[in-house]
Amino acid sequence: MSATAPDAIKLRVEDAQVRFGALHVLGPISFEVEAGECVVLLGPSGCGKSTLLAALAGLQDLASGRVWAGEAGISPGFVFQDPNLMGWATALDNVALPLALAGVVRDEQKERALGALGLVGLAEFALSRPRALSGGMAMRVALARALVNNPAALLLDEPFGAIDELGRRGLNDLVHAAKRDRGVAVLFVTHSVEEAVYMGDTILVLSPRPGTIAARIEVPHVPRDGAFLMSDAFARTVAAARGALAGGAHEIA
Amino acid sequence: MKSLDPAPLIAGLLLLAIWEGLTRALQMPPVVLPPPSAIFAALIARGDVLVPAAGVTLGLALTALGISIVLGTGTALIFARVPLLERGLGPYALVLQATPIVAIAPLVIIWSGIENPRRAILILAIVVAVFPVLTAALAGLKAVNPGLDRLFRLYRATSFQRFMRLELPTAAPFLIAGIKTAAGLSLVGVVVAEFVAGTGATGGLSWRLVEAGNRLETATMFAALFLLAGMGLVLHVCLNALERRFVG
Question: Could you tell me which of A71, A53, A77, A55 has the C-alpha nearest to residue A8?
Fold first, then answer.
């Protein structure tokens, strides 16, 4: 997150604070995410990570400060912990939902939803109902839905926690592809230190409630693949992130 | 479509055979318990009277069911939108639901006019059938998945989009289950109301049942009962098909 042209910033959090009544949940916290960058929020339970994502999506009011994600008129993509698919609709109709709600004509909805399903490797399951899909496939559909309206920002709230290791890696790579190929700004919340290092260009380690940035870890700019997972750089960054989570290091580059 | 399970048919035929065998072996007087063969014969012999009567009863039950669906779903929609109304009126709806229809029947008959038993019968059947629809529709409308609710808010769905694309499909399985219960109850409601009205003016099946009872034509009574049970079964099968179509 070096000095960047303002229009490259696709997600911004400025002195944001959230309170639930007397409970101070989050902040003050400030950071930005550029187009094509992935920032990971890592922190203990209850530190306000998910609350911050909800605020960025317009689903949670702030006590003070300002947040925005994406571009005017286009909701940011959001992948929740659960796929949250409509059980009565096909995968295609689930993916097309953001377009349908935006009033896009039916033919274009179908074409774009099919494209998004193809992107996550599920074009042949377009007419399947969610109950016919595995957990990993359902999450891919949720990811396709989040990307179908070409959002400038993508919010992911511990999305792949319930998926097996291999499926999780595949989903992580799909998010990397969206970031790299479409220039999507990604804000990723996870409990897994390894996933944080694999996904993030920057990891923000949050303090316990009220969550503020306790440490900022820059992950080496190398391709994210199997080799990276086996590298010393990966092991060092994971150790640094663990240390920061335990309350040790602060600025690690 | 899934093929029909033959087990109930086999069990039914077996029971009828046992019934036939026992009534014959014990030389049961037909006025007390006629054998199935006599009931079948009565059904054929009195079919010209019983089948049209069954048609009248079924017509009344279906009309009551249709009105109950519209009334129950409409009220559930209002209750879901105005929780204060549900809190205020809900307990009274429960009181009405818990009151036996036979106890209300004489009043309803007086109010709708002795000369208009059809209207009284319809009202009584609706009183019985509307509550399962109302409670099921209300439960369905409240069963919206919070995650999907957030998704619809994220994409700024209008109230109408939310209703059509989220609330209605969520409520559909509940509503169909409620309608299945209501279908059986509307039939019960019509039959009980016909009994209580104590008139053959509508020409329904329960009047034929009373008539056969008065004449000690037990086989005809059973034939009418079988027709009633058959109607209930057909309704149930139709609604099951509807459920498969919409709920899967």
Answer: A71
* pLDDT values of chain B reduced to their tens digit, one per residue, 248 residues: 456 788 888 999 999 999 999 999 998 888 889 999 999 999 999 888 899 999 999 999 999 999 999 999 999 999 988 989 888 988 888 888 888 888 888 888 888 877 778 888 899 899 999 999 999 999 999 999 999 999 999 999 999 999 999 999 999 999 999 999 999 899 988 888 888 877 666 778 888 888 888 888 899 999 999 999 888 888 888 888 888 877 65
Report the C-alpha gap between B240 and B234 in whole angstroms.
Answer: 10
For residue A202, list its beta bridge partners.
A39, A218
The DSSP call for residue A87 is: T
Residue A147 CA: distances (Å) to CA of A83, A88, A102, A187? 14, 21, 14, 14
DSSP string, A17-32: EEEETTEEEEEEEEEE
> Cβ–Cβ contacts within 10 Å for residue B100, how many?
9
Q: Cβ of B156 under 8 Å from any chain A Cβ?
A: yes
Burial class (CB in 10 A: 0-12, 13-18, 19+), A179: buried
Q: Which of A84, A89, A102 comes nearest B145 by C-beta? A: A84
Distance CA A148, CA A150 (A): 5
pTM passes above 0.90: no
Considering only CA atoms, which of B93, B91, B125 is closest in space to residue B108?
B125
Q: Is A218 helix (H, G, I), strand (E, B) or coil?
A: strand
User: What ipTM does the predicted assembly reach?
Assistant: 0.89
Distance from CA of A97 to the nearest CA of B (A): 9
B-chain residues near A129 (CB < 8 A):
248
Looking at the DSSP bridge assignments, the partners of residue A17 are A64
- The full DSSP string for A5-65 is -GGGEEEEEEEEEEEETTEEEEEEEEEEEETT-EEEEE--TTSSHHHHHHHHTTSS--SEE
